């Protein structure tokens, strides 16, 4: 007996169902793609927002830092006059010495130039060295000048000044200034013309001892001893 084969035919309803399922499947895939794209966009926007927020925070901190720096600079400018004051100054108007019209290594104060030596010499050699520089050992005319000199000296040594006792009890300034017409600022018990010195003590110096007012007063000493010294002269334009 011959076998009879039958062709399978789909009905219109089956085709419609198949097409619908295919459409739903494709639609679901597209929806998943959209969800993925949407999720990626949301994540990107979140990351971007986070980055912008961090950047804004950094900029705000930078602005705050700049503000603090400006405030610090302004405060430094306001404090500048105070920082310019000499550490051991005892009156407010004293400021760091300036070169002004003076040559290098000289400082200017009240129309005079001052040189502070680092080398130590006897009084006469110190005066000779000042003369070679076109000057003389410093002549202290008043308390303000003494305060200035007290403030600029760099060491704890005594310093020769232009005061000498040519005759017993007769002190004189090297530039001819009348000693009796100037203020006298001897340290306590000075001048004592210490008897133990063979050569006596006939030369004046700015004492190493510092008073409570941060001032160095005068002392008499043996002229042959070696001390640093201070020279004084008028600026070259004078």
From TrEMBL:
Record flagged with keyword Hydrolase: no
GO molecular function annotation: carbohydrate binding
Segments traversing the membrane: 35-54
Domain C-type lectin residues, every copy: 109-232
Signal peptide feature range: none
Protein's name in the database: C-type lectin domain-containing protein
Keywords: Lectin, Membrane, Transmembrane, Transmembrane helix
